[in-house]
């Protein structure tokens, strides 16, 4: 027969705690919403920057033998947030936590997941750092490229925000049946098509001047010199490649007299969205909505949105953007804490995650 103290130790060992790895109040709001839904208290810890800008983390309670979930939302100071996450994960690892699961709704550096000229795939570097710090599992949402999951050496649950955004369209956009889903570029067509099929709406695709950060001109294909020295063996003479020339922006699909809903995963620099909205207005769309999972909204994004033809920008609370909302009333927020809380509960209890992906298309 086991003594009561042994049973108590085993109960503690099988428990879980939820911590926030962020030092700013704006970034702890999502963590508070998640813990409220779970019916648990936020773990006691102190995260702060010393006078020399070093990050320090003090965990104020025992975590031995427990599943620990670290919620880290990414503010504008991305690098500080990454260091806070790494230091907290390492502190929990050295405190003998059983499993350390990072809840990172917006995964930083996800746009740097392809080789550009003589650069590096920074996203791969970050995944290696997280594993070294002690993380054993990641919960994230709408990775910029789904192939990023292959960079990790531990399990990744890539949740989707599309059910919440689709629900917003159905409940908050009057006469949404007269809408058309728009892909801002051909690369976004699959995601937009998934939304269009579930909403039973038409699809339009914009083609033309693309985002320069995604341009093939930056991937190193033009890095060899066009003229080589004739000294010694010249090797094979490769044919010169013709430079790509983008046509002016065109819209494939009829948007006249319709509500245009542009679908994307990240909205950061908004110049492309503003230009797309102007083209759609010229083509006869009478309302323009932007729907995206992660609203980074950097630099002058709020001002540009407010002055543009865009009627509303709808993003989730994976990234704190309260300041931007004060600057631009057109920005609306959809809460996704429910699915994050349910993912935490299911992972701790060893339940299947399939329920969270029901009716979710691969292309979302």
From TrEMBL:
The keyword Protease does not apply. Residues 23-134 form the Ribose-phosphate pyrophosphokinase N-terminal domain. GO terms for cellular component: cytoplasm; ribose phosphate diphosphokinase complex. Belongs to the ribose-phosphate pyrophosphokinase family. The keyword Transcription does not apply. InterPro entries: Pribosyltran_N, PRTase-like, PRTase_dom, Rib-P_diPkinase. Keywords: Nucleotide biosynthesis. The gene is LOC115043518. Transmembrane segments: none annotated. This is Phosphoribosyl pyrophosphate synthase-associated protein 1-like. GO terms for biological process: 5-phosphoribose 1-diphosphate biosynthetic process; purine nucleotide biosynthetic process.
């Amino acid at each position: 027969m086991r003594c009561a103290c042994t049973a108590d130790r085993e109960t503690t060992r099988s428990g879980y705690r939820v911590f926030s790895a962020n030092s700013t109040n704006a970034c702890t709001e999502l963590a508070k919403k998640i813990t409220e839904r779970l019916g648990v208290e936020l773990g006691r810890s102190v995260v702060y920057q010393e006078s020399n800008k070093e990050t320090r983390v003090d965990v104020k309670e025992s975590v031995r033998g427990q599943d620990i979930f670290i919620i880290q939302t990414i503010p504008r100071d991305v690098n500080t947030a990454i260091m806070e996450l790494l230091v907290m994960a390492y502190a929990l690892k050295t405190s003998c936590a059983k499993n350390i699961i990072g809840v990172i709704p917006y995964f930083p550096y996800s746009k740097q997941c392809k080789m550009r000229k003589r650069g590096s795939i920074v996203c791969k570097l970050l995944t290696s750092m997280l594993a070294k710090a002690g993380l054993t599992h990641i919960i994230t949402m709408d990775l910029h490229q789904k192939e990023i999951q292959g960079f990790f050496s531990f399990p990744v649950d890539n949740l989707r925000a599309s059910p919440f955004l689709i629900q917003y369209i159905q409940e908050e956009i009057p006469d949404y049946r007269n809408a058309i889903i728009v892909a801002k570029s051909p690369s976004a067509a699959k995601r937009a098509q998934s939304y269009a099929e579930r909403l039973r709406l038409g699809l339009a695709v914009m083609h033309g001047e693309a985002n320069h950060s995604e341009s093939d001109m930056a991937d190193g294909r033009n890095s060899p010199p066009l003229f080589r020295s004739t000294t010694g063996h010249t090797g094979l003479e490769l044919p010169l490649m013709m430079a790509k020339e983008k046509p002016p922006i065109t819209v494939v699909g009829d948007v006249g007299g319709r509500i245009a809903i542009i679908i994307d995963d990240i909205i950061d620099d908004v110049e492309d969205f503003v230009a797309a909205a102007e083209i759609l207005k010229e083509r006869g769309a009478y309302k323009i909505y932007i729907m995206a999972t992660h609203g980074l909204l950097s630099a002058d994004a709020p001002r540009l949105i407010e002055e543009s033809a865009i009627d509303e920008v709808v993003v989730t609370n994976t990234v704190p953007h309260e300041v931007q909302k004060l600057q631009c009333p057109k920005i609306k927020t959809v809460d996704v804490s429910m699915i994050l809380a349910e993912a935490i509960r299911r992972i701790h209890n060893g339940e299947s995650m399939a329920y969270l992906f029901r009716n979710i298309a691969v292309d979302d």
